[in-house]
Design goal:
The protein has 121 residues and is mainly alpha-helical. It has two domains: 36 residues, no CATH class; 84 residues, Multidrug-efflux Transporter Regulator, Chain: A, Domain 2 (Orthogonal Bundle). 46% of the residues lie in helices and 7% in strands. It has a three-stranded antiparallel β-sheet with strand order 1-3-2. The protein is elongated and about 85 Å long.
Length: 121
Amino acid sequence: MTPADRTLQLLGEALIQLANAPSALHTITVTETLTLSTTWNRARLYDVKPETRLTADDVAQIFGMTRAALYKRLKREAIPHRKCRDKSLSFLAGDLRRWYEAGEQVITPVIDYGAAVRRIK
């Protein structure tokens, strides 16, 4: 059961207790504390739907930088983002995935076998 499902279950149980309460001043005690994860990393970026909207704080956390560093990179690079009416920035997970993958470089070491053969002779 996911933390979100457990939270819904606990809320449902609390509502049932409240509905069955003999008076309106009934006290409900919840003995379990749940913490929903709000941390982002690159792996989690690939776990969410492509249309998931992220804030500047989320994106900065994904790429391991401060929000100020992210804003500086936005001026230099074409990081896909949207500017909302309230002037806040919004990022789509799918756009960030494609942008990140386009910037990857596959590094394969080049081995010069000819030079090694010449030294052996």
